[in-house]
Amino acid sequence: MRRAYKFLLRPTSRQTVALVACLEEHRQLYNAALEHRRTAYRMAGAKIRYGDQSAELKHIRGDDPGGQGRWSFSSQQATLRRLDKAFAAFFRRRKAGQTPGYPRFKGRGWFDTVEWPKDGDGCRWDSQPGHPTATFVRLQGIGHVRVHRHRPVRGRVKTIAVKREGRRWYVILSCEDVPAESLPATGAVAGIDLGVASLVTTSDGDHLANPRHLAASADRLAAAQRDLARKKRGSRRRRRAAARVAALHAKIRRQRLDGAHKAALRLVRDYDVIAHEALRITNMTRSAKGTAEQPGRGVAAKAGLNRSILDAGWGVFLRILAHKAESAGRELIAVNPAGTSRTCPRCGHCAAGNRVTQAEFRCQGCGHQAHADVNAAINFLRAGLALRDAAQAA
Protein backbone atom coordinates (compact mmCIF):
# COMPACT_ATOMS: atom_id res chain seq x y z
CA MET A 1 0.00 0.00 0.00
CA ARG A 2 1.01 3.66 -0.38
CA ARG A 3 1.35 6.20 2.38
CA ALA A 4 2.35 9.84 2.63
CA TYR A 5 4.56 11.25 5.37
CA LYS A 6 4.76 14.94 6.18
CA PHE A 7 7.67 16.37 8.18
CA LEU A 8 8.61 19.89 9.23
CA LEU A 9 11.79 21.27 7.66
CA ARG A 10 14.39 23.24 9.63
CA PRO A 11 16.19 25.23 6.89
CA THR A 12 18.91 27.75 7.60
CA SER A 13 18.38 31.38 6.57
CA ARG A 14 20.39 30.80 3.38
CA GLN A 15 18.42 27.64 2.58
CA THR A 16 15.16 29.52 3.17
CA VAL A 17 16.19 32.08 0.55
CA ALA A 18 17.01 29.24 -1.86
CA LEU A 19 13.67 27.52 -1.17
CA VAL A 20 11.80 30.76 -1.91
CA ALA A 21 13.77 31.19 -5.14
CA CYS A 22 13.08 27.57 -6.15
CA LEU A 23 9.35 28.04 -5.60
CA GLU A 24 9.33 31.31 -7.52
CA GLU A 25 11.23 29.88 -10.51
CA HIS A 26 8.84 26.93 -10.75
CA ARG A 27 5.88 29.31 -10.54
CA GLN A 28 7.29 31.35 -13.40
CA LEU A 29 7.85 28.18 -15.42
CA TYR A 30 4.23 27.13 -14.83
CA ASN A 31 2.90 30.53 -15.91
CA ALA A 32 5.17 30.67 -18.97
CA ALA A 33 4.03 27.21 -20.06
CA LEU A 34 0.40 28.25 -19.61
CA GLU A 35 0.95 31.42 -21.67
CA HIS A 36 2.67 29.31 -24.34
CA ARG A 37 -0.38 27.06 -24.67
CA ARG A 38 -2.84 29.96 -24.70
CA THR A 39 -0.91 31.97 -27.28
CA ALA A 40 -0.33 29.02 -29.62
CA TYR A 41 -4.02 28.14 -29.64
CA ARG A 42 -5.20 31.73 -29.98
CA MET A 43 -2.80 32.71 -32.78
CA ALA A 44 -2.54 29.49 -34.79
CA GLY A 45 -5.09 27.05 -33.35
CA ALA A 46 -2.23 24.75 -32.35
CA LYS A 47 -2.47 22.49 -29.31
CA ILE A 48 0.69 22.30 -27.22
CA ARG A 49 1.26 19.09 -25.28
CA TYR A 50 3.43 18.20 -22.32
CA GLY A 51 5.96 16.48 -24.59
CA ASP A 52 6.44 19.64 -26.64
CA GLN A 53 7.11 21.80 -23.59
CA SER A 54 9.30 19.21 -21.90
CA ALA A 55 11.52 19.07 -24.99
CA GLU A 56 12.11 22.84 -24.71
CA LEU A 57 13.35 22.62 -21.12
CA LYS A 58 16.92 21.95 -22.21
CA HIS A 59 17.06 25.24 -24.14
CA ILE A 60 15.32 27.17 -21.34
CA ARG A 61 17.82 25.91 -18.78
CA GLY A 62 20.74 26.67 -21.08
CA ASP A 63 19.58 30.25 -21.66
CA ASP A 64 19.08 30.87 -17.93
CA PRO A 65 21.83 28.99 -16.03
CA GLY A 66 21.54 31.22 -12.95
CA GLY A 67 17.76 30.81 -12.77
CA GLN A 68 15.95 27.84 -14.28
CA GLY A 69 19.22 26.03 -14.80
CA ARG A 70 19.87 25.75 -11.04
CA TRP A 71 17.00 23.41 -10.31
CA SER A 72 16.34 19.76 -10.96
CA PHE A 73 15.26 18.90 -14.49
CA SER A 74 12.83 16.27 -13.17
CA SER A 75 11.18 18.74 -10.78
CA GLN A 76 10.61 21.13 -13.69
CA GLN A 77 9.07 18.28 -15.67
CA ALA A 78 6.77 17.62 -12.70
CA THR A 79 5.65 21.26 -12.81
CA LEU A 80 4.86 20.94 -16.53
CA ARG A 81 2.94 17.73 -15.81
CA ARG A 82 0.98 19.62 -13.17
CA LEU A 83 -0.15 22.07 -15.84
CA ASP A 84 -0.93 19.22 -18.23
CA LYS A 85 -3.13 17.58 -15.57
CA ALA A 86 -4.98 20.86 -15.07
CA PHE A 87 -5.80 21.00 -18.80
CA ALA A 88 -6.78 17.32 -18.86
CA ALA A 89 -9.15 17.88 -15.95
CA PHE A 90 -10.60 20.96 -17.67
CA PHE A 91 -11.39 19.11 -20.89
CA ARG A 92 -12.68 16.04 -19.01
CA ARG A 93 -15.18 18.12 -17.01
CA ARG A 94 -16.18 20.08 -20.10
CA LYS A 95 -16.83 16.85 -22.01
CA ALA A 96 -18.99 15.66 -19.10
CA GLY A 97 -21.23 18.73 -19.46
CA GLN A 98 -19.91 20.56 -16.42
CA THR A 99 -18.73 24.19 -16.30
CA PRO A 100 -15.07 24.00 -15.23
CA GLY A 101 -12.76 26.96 -14.85
CA TYR A 102 -9.97 27.39 -17.36
CA PRO A 103 -6.46 26.85 -15.90
CA ARG A 104 -5.27 30.09 -14.33
CA PHE A 105 -1.98 31.83 -13.90
CA LYS A 106 -0.50 31.29 -10.44
CA GLY A 107 0.12 34.36 -8.29
CA ARG A 108 2.78 34.41 -5.60
CA GLY A 109 0.35 33.20 -2.98
CA TRP A 110 -1.13 30.41 -5.11
CA PHE A 111 1.87 28.24 -5.87
CA ASP A 112 3.33 26.60 -2.79
CA THR A 113 4.59 23.12 -3.79
CA VAL A 114 7.49 21.74 -5.80
CA GLU A 115 7.72 18.01 -6.46
CA TRP A 116 10.63 15.72 -7.31
CA PRO A 117 9.11 12.61 -8.96
CA LYS A 118 11.89 10.18 -8.03
CA ASP A 119 14.08 9.82 -4.96
CA GLY A 120 17.68 10.12 -6.14
CA ASP A 121 16.93 12.34 -9.17
CA GLY A 122 17.63 15.87 -7.98
CA CYS A 123 16.74 14.96 -4.41
CA ARG A 124 17.71 12.40 -1.79
CA TRP A 125 15.85 11.42 1.36
CA ASP A 126 18.02 10.72 4.41
CA SER A 127 20.99 12.15 2.56
CA GLN A 128 23.27 11.88 5.63
CA PRO A 129 22.43 8.47 7.13
CA GLY A 130 25.56 8.48 9.27
CA HIS A 131 24.47 11.53 11.25
CA PRO A 132 23.88 10.43 14.86
CA THR A 133 20.95 12.70 15.78
CA ALA A 134 19.35 14.36 12.75
CA THR A 135 17.74 13.50 9.41
CA PHE A 136 18.44 15.50 6.24
CA VAL A 137 16.92 15.72 2.76
CA ARG A 138 19.12 16.90 -0.08
CA LEU A 139 17.53 19.12 -2.73
CA GLN A 140 19.37 20.24 -5.85
CA GLY A 141 20.26 23.93 -5.67
CA ILE A 142 19.38 24.11 -1.96
CA GLY A 143 21.57 21.61 -0.15
CA HIS A 144 21.09 19.29 2.82
CA VAL A 145 18.06 20.57 4.73
CA ARG A 146 17.42 19.34 8.25
CA VAL A 147 14.14 17.47 8.83
CA HIS A 148 12.18 17.16 12.05
CA ARG A 149 11.34 13.47 11.64
CA HIS A 150 8.87 12.68 14.40
CA ARG A 151 8.13 9.10 13.30
CA PRO A 152 9.85 6.37 11.26
CA VAL A 153 9.34 6.15 7.50
CA ARG A 154 8.22 2.76 6.22
CA GLY A 155 8.30 1.44 2.70
CA ARG A 156 10.22 2.79 -0.29
CA VAL A 157 10.32 6.54 -0.88
CA LYS A 158 9.01 7.23 -4.37
CA THR A 159 8.39 10.99 -4.65
CA ILE A 160 9.51 13.97 -2.57
CA ALA A 161 7.72 17.31 -2.44
CA VAL A 162 8.43 20.54 -0.57
CA LYS A 163 5.50 22.69 0.50
CA ARG A 164 5.31 26.14 2.04
CA GLU A 165 2.57 26.83 4.58
CA GLY A 166 2.79 30.37 5.85
CA ARG A 167 6.31 30.76 7.23
CA ARG A 168 6.84 27.02 7.63
CA TRP A 169 8.31 24.56 5.16
CA TYR A 170 7.40 20.88 4.99
CA VAL A 171 8.72 17.86 3.11
CA ILE A 172 6.12 15.32 1.94
CA LEU A 173 7.19 11.79 1.10
CA SER A 174 5.07 9.41 -0.95
CA CYS A 175 6.10 5.85 -0.11
CA GLU A 176 5.26 2.56 -1.80
CA ASP A 177 5.28 -1.00 -0.45
CA VAL A 178 4.36 0.18 3.04
CA PRO A 179 3.55 -2.90 5.13
CA ALA A 180 0.03 -3.05 6.54
CA GLU A 181 -0.25 -2.79 10.30
CA SER A 182 -3.17 -5.13 10.88
CA LEU A 183 -4.83 -5.01 14.27
CA PRO A 184 -6.21 -8.07 16.08
CA ALA A 185 -9.89 -8.78 15.48
CA THR A 186 -12.31 -7.53 18.12
CA GLY A 187 -15.51 -9.09 16.80
CA ALA A 188 -17.33 -5.75 17.25
CA VAL A 189 -19.23 -3.81 14.59
CA ALA A 190 -20.60 -0.28 14.69
CA GLY A 191 -22.46 2.34 12.75
CA ILE A 192 -21.41 5.95 13.14
CA ASP A 193 -23.31 9.20 12.64
CA LEU A 194 -21.41 12.44 12.01
CA GLY A 195 -22.76 15.61 13.52
CA VAL A 196 -22.05 19.10 14.79
CA ALA A 197 -23.00 18.69 18.45
CA SER A 198 -20.84 15.53 18.58
CA LEU A 199 -18.31 14.79 15.89
CA VAL A 200 -19.09 11.04 15.98
CA THR A 201 -21.95 9.12 17.59
CA THR A 202 -21.72 5.33 17.52
CA SER A 203 -24.50 2.76 17.50
CA ASP A 204 -23.30 1.72 20.98
CA GLY A 205 -24.28 5.16 22.30
CA ASP A 206 -20.77 6.65 22.58
CA HIS A 207 -20.27 10.30 21.67
CA LEU A 208 -16.92 11.67 20.48
CA ALA A 209 -16.80 15.39 21.18
CA ASN A 210 -16.55 18.01 18.46
CA PRO A 211 -13.76 20.38 19.64
CA ARG A 212 -14.95 23.31 17.41
CA HIS A 213 -11.45 24.64 16.84
CA LEU A 214 -12.58 27.47 14.54
CA ALA A 215 -15.13 28.71 17.07
CA ALA A 216 -12.52 28.57 19.85
CA SER A 217 -10.14 30.77 17.85
CA ALA A 218 -12.82 33.03 16.33
CA ASP A 219 -12.04 36.08 18.50
CA ARG A 220 -8.30 35.99 17.81
CA LEU A 221 -8.91 35.33 14.12
CA ALA A 222 -11.38 38.23 13.85
CA ALA A 223 -8.94 40.59 15.57
CA ALA A 224 -6.13 39.52 13.23
CA GLN A 225 -8.34 39.99 10.17
CA ARG A 226 -9.44 43.46 11.34
CA ASP A 227 -5.80 44.38 11.81
CA LEU A 228 -5.05 43.11 8.30
CA ALA A 229 -7.88 45.15 6.78
CA ARG A 230 -6.44 48.39 8.22
CA LYS A 231 -3.02 47.92 6.62
CA LYS A 232 -2.04 49.54 3.33
CA ARG A 233 -1.86 47.16 0.39
CA GLY A 234 1.69 46.26 -0.60
CA SER A 235 3.20 47.41 2.68
CA ARG A 236 5.47 45.38 4.92
CA ARG A 237 3.02 45.69 7.80
CA ARG A 238 0.27 44.21 5.68
CA ARG A 239 2.47 41.23 4.81
CA ARG A 240 3.16 40.67 8.50
CA ALA A 241 -0.53 40.95 9.37
CA ALA A 242 -1.39 38.50 6.57
CA ALA A 243 1.22 36.09 7.95
CA ARG A 244 -0.47 36.23 11.38
CA VAL A 245 -3.87 35.41 9.85
CA ALA A 246 -2.33 32.55 7.87
CA ALA A 247 -0.60 31.22 11.00
CA LEU A 248 -3.91 31.14 12.90
CA HIS A 249 -5.65 29.29 10.07
CA ALA A 250 -2.74 26.83 9.86
CA LYS A 251 -2.95 26.15 13.59
CA ILE A 252 -6.70 25.49 13.35
CA ARG A 253 -6.08 23.11 10.45
CA ARG A 254 -3.43 21.20 12.40
CA GLN A 255 -5.72 20.97 15.45
CA ARG A 256 -8.53 19.61 13.28
CA LEU A 257 -6.24 17.03 11.71
CA ASP A 258 -4.95 15.94 15.09
CA GLY A 259 -8.47 15.47 16.44
CA ALA A 260 -9.55 13.54 13.35
CA HIS A 261 -6.55 11.20 13.63
CA LYS A 262 -7.28 10.46 17.29
CA ALA A 263 -11.01 9.87 16.73
CA ALA A 264 -10.40 7.63 13.70
CA LEU A 265 -7.74 5.61 15.54
CA ARG A 266 -10.11 5.00 18.43
CA LEU A 267 -12.81 3.65 16.12
CA VAL A 268 -10.39 1.47 14.15
CA ARG A 269 -9.03 -0.07 17.32
CA ASP A 270 -12.48 -0.85 18.75
CA TYR A 271 -14.41 -2.17 15.71
CA ASP A 272 -13.83 -4.62 12.86
CA VAL A 273 -16.63 -3.23 10.68
CA ILE A 274 -17.67 0.44 10.58
CA ALA A 275 -20.68 1.68 8.62
CA HIS A 276 -21.02 5.41 7.97
CA GLU A 277 -23.22 7.70 5.94
CA ALA A 278 -22.09 8.55 2.42
CA LEU A 279 -22.10 12.32 2.83
CA ARG A 280 -22.14 14.86 0.01
CA ILE A 281 -20.59 17.69 1.98
CA THR A 282 -20.38 20.08 -0.98
CA ASN A 283 -24.14 19.95 -1.44
CA MET A 284 -24.77 20.22 2.30
CA THR A 285 -22.73 23.42 2.62
CA ARG A 286 -24.13 25.33 -0.33
CA SER A 287 -25.34 28.85 0.35
CA ALA A 288 -29.02 29.53 0.94
CA LYS A 289 -31.04 30.44 -2.14
CA GLY A 290 -31.73 34.08 -2.90
CA THR A 291 -30.38 37.25 -4.46
CA ALA A 292 -28.93 40.48 -3.12
CA GLU A 293 -32.34 42.16 -3.43
CA GLN A 294 -34.30 39.15 -2.07
CA PRO A 295 -31.89 37.16 0.07
CA GLY A 296 -34.49 34.59 1.08
CA ARG A 297 -35.24 33.07 4.46
CA GLY A 298 -32.83 31.64 7.00
CA VAL A 299 -29.71 32.85 5.19
CA ALA A 300 -27.86 33.73 8.42
CA ALA A 301 -28.83 30.41 10.02
CA LYS A 302 -27.68 28.47 6.94
CA ALA A 303 -24.38 30.34 6.91
CA GLY A 304 -23.83 29.46 10.57
CA LEU A 305 -24.68 25.80 9.92
CA ASN A 306 -22.27 25.68 6.98
CA ARG A 307 -19.53 27.17 9.14
CA SER A 308 -20.16 24.57 11.87
CA ILE A 309 -20.12 21.69 9.35
CA LEU A 310 -16.84 22.84 7.83
CA ASP A 311 -15.36 23.42 11.28
CA ALA A 312 -16.22 19.84 12.25
CA GLY A 313 -14.17 18.59 9.27
CA TRP A 314 -16.32 15.61 8.24
CA GLY A 315 -14.52 15.16 4.94
CA VAL A 316 -11.08 15.18 6.59
CA PHE A 317 -12.25 12.71 9.23
CA LEU A 318 -13.73 10.26 6.71
CA ARG A 319 -10.60 10.36 4.56
CA ILE A 320 -8.36 9.66 7.55
CA LEU A 321 -10.72 6.94 8.77
CA ALA A 322 -10.56 5.23 5.36
CA HIS A 323 -6.74 5.27 5.37
CA LYS A 324 -6.48 3.90 8.90
CA ALA A 325 -9.10 1.22 8.24
CA GLU A 326 -7.22 0.03 5.15
CA SER A 327 -3.93 -0.12 7.04
CA ALA A 328 -5.46 -1.94 10.03
CA GLY A 329 -7.41 -4.44 7.93
CA ARG A 330 -10.80 -3.09 8.99
CA GLU A 331 -13.88 -2.90 6.77
CA LEU A 332 -15.49 0.46 6.07
CA ILE A 333 -18.96 0.60 4.48
CA ALA A 334 -20.61 3.76 3.11
CA VAL A 335 -24.41 3.83 3.40
CA ASN A 336 -26.97 6.02 1.65
CA PRO A 337 -28.31 8.26 4.47
CA ALA A 338 -31.75 8.79 2.92
CA GLY A 339 -34.43 8.24 5.58
CA THR A 340 -32.07 6.90 8.24
CA SER A 341 -32.67 9.77 10.67
CA ARG A 342 -36.45 9.24 10.76
CA THR A 343 -36.70 5.45 10.56
CA CYS A 344 -37.41 3.41 13.68
CA PRO A 345 -34.90 0.55 14.13
CA ARG A 346 -37.48 -1.54 16.03
CA CYS A 347 -40.60 -1.46 13.89
CA GLY A 348 -39.27 0.11 10.67
CA HIS A 349 -41.81 2.97 10.70
CA CYS A 350 -40.45 5.94 8.70
CA ALA A 351 -41.98 9.39 9.11
CA ALA A 352 -40.75 12.94 9.41
CA GLY A 353 -42.57 13.28 12.73
CA ASN A 354 -40.39 10.61 14.32
CA ARG A 355 -37.59 13.17 14.61
CA VAL A 356 -39.06 15.30 17.39
CA THR A 357 -36.04 17.58 17.80
CA GLN A 358 -32.47 17.65 16.58
CA ALA A 359 -31.46 15.34 19.44
CA GLU A 360 -34.63 13.36 20.22
CA PHE A 361 -36.21 10.48 18.30
CA ARG A 362 -39.67 9.14 19.20
CA CYS A 363 -41.37 6.62 16.91
CA GLN A 364 -45.01 7.46 16.19
CA GLY A 365 -45.71 3.81 15.45
CA CYS A 366 -44.34 1.89 18.44
CA GLY A 367 -43.29 4.65 20.82
CA HIS A 368 -39.58 3.75 20.78
CA GLN A 369 -37.44 6.60 22.12
CA ALA A 370 -33.70 7.16 21.65
CA HIS A 371 -31.11 9.81 20.98
CA ALA A 372 -31.58 10.84 17.36
CA ASP A 373 -27.91 10.40 16.43
CA VAL A 374 -27.70 6.98 18.11
CA ASN A 375 -30.85 5.94 16.26
CA ALA A 376 -29.32 7.01 12.92
CA ALA A 377 -26.06 5.18 13.73
CA ILE A 378 -28.02 1.96 14.39
CA ASN A 379 -29.73 2.32 11.01
CA PHE A 380 -26.36 2.86 9.32
CA LEU A 381 -25.04 -0.31 10.91
CA ARG A 382 -28.02 -2.40 9.78
CA ALA A 383 -27.88 -1.02 6.25
CA GLY A 384 -24.12 -1.53 6.08
CA LEU A 385 -24.33 -5.15 7.23
CA ALA A 386 -27.10 -5.77 4.69
CA LEU A 387 -24.91 -4.36 1.91
CA ARG A 388 -22.00 -6.53 3.02
CA ASP A 389 -24.17 -9.68 3.11
CA ALA A 390 -25.55 -8.90 -0.34
CA ALA A 391 -22.04 -8.40 -1.75
CA GLN A 392 -20.84 -11.67 -0.24
CA ALA A 393 -23.87 -13.57 -1.58
CA ALA A 394 -23.25 -12.21 -5.08
TrEMBL record:
Residues 1-42 form the Transposase putative helix-turn-helix domain. The keyword Cytoplasm does not apply. InterPro entries: Cas12f1-like_TNB, RNA-guided_DNA_endo/Transpos, Transposase, Transposase_put_HTH. The keyword DNA-binding applies. GO terms for molecular function: DNA binding; metal ion binding. Residues 181-287 form the Probable transposase IS891/IS1136/IS1341 domain. Keywords: DNA recombination, DNA-binding, Metal-binding, Transposition, Zinc. GO terms for biological process: DNA recombination; transposition. Coiled coil: none annotated. Residues 314-379 form the Cas12f1-like TNB domain. In the N-terminal section; belongs to the transposase 2 family. This is Putative transposase. The lineage of its organism: Bacteria, Bacillati, Actinomycetota, Actinomycetes, Streptosporangiales.
